[in-house]
Design goal:
Mean pLDDT: 95
Low-confidence stretches: none
Distance between the termini: 50 Å
Helix content: 25-40%
Order of helices and strands: EHEEEEH
Radius of gyration: 17 Å
Shape: globular
Bound molecules: coenzyme A
Number of helices: 2
Length: 157
């Protein structure tokens, strides 16, 4: 596996269920954060923290007993920040039918031991897919900044 990618597969156990017997959204978010941490930390070779989570879309419920695979990829690198995109696939173990159940984007920042930020190595974009993901990550970053600026100006008016 390349240094900007990770894959993690977890069996959905009954302790992850909500009141309706499906997998709890919070249980999934915890696993997503772990994947984002592992992916960014491994790429940057540094301790990282989560600074934001965007576009977590629960497209379909996940059932207890399913095998869930998280495919994480560093899509874009700024100076100290990285956007990690995560695609989540749920597999019915008996039928092997696989569904795309969730996608989301984490911004992780590399931090040095004593509170400073760590510069992260530039991401090498080789495939058309990597270029597409990077372009979309840049657009998301611009939209986030625009939104923050608009909220700030609305707060002043
Ligand atoms: C992450 C953290 C160190 C950034 O500190 P900061 O003073 O905002 O630093 P900067 O403004 O220099 O931003 C650092 C990077 O984070 C990015 N960033 C900051 N706020 C962001 C936000 N809301 N969304 C996305 N990215 C953000 C900046 O764009 C910058 O990226 P770059 O280095 O690639 O240009 C600080 O916000 C922090 O410690 N947050 C808490 C993290 C944490 O505890 N996470 C666990 C939550 S339970």
């Amino acid at each position: 596996m390349e240094t900007h990618e990770v894959a993690m597969t977890v069996l959905m156990t009954p302790d992850m269920a909500n009141f309706s017997g499906k997998v709890h959204g919070g249980a999934l978010l915890k696993l997503l954060d772990q994947v984002a941490y592992a992916c960014a930390s491994r790429y940057a070779a540094s301790y990282v923290v989560t600074v934001s989570v965007d576009q977590v879309v629960f497209r379909q419920p996940i059932h207890v007993g399913e095998l869930v695979t998280f495919l994480g990829s560093v899509n874009h690198v700024g100076t100290s920040s990285m956007e990690v995109g995560i695609k989540v696939l749920a597999e019915n173990i008996q039928t092997r039918a696989t569904r795309h159940v969730n996608s989301c984007f984490f911004t992780m920042v590399a931090v040095a031991e004593h509170d400073g930020k760590n510069r992260v190595a530039a991401l090498e974009l080789r495939t058309p897919e990597q270029h597409r993901r990077s372009r979309q990550a840049v657009l998301r970053r611009k939209l986030r900044e625009e939104l923050a600026a608009r909220f700030a100006s609305a707060a002043q008016s």
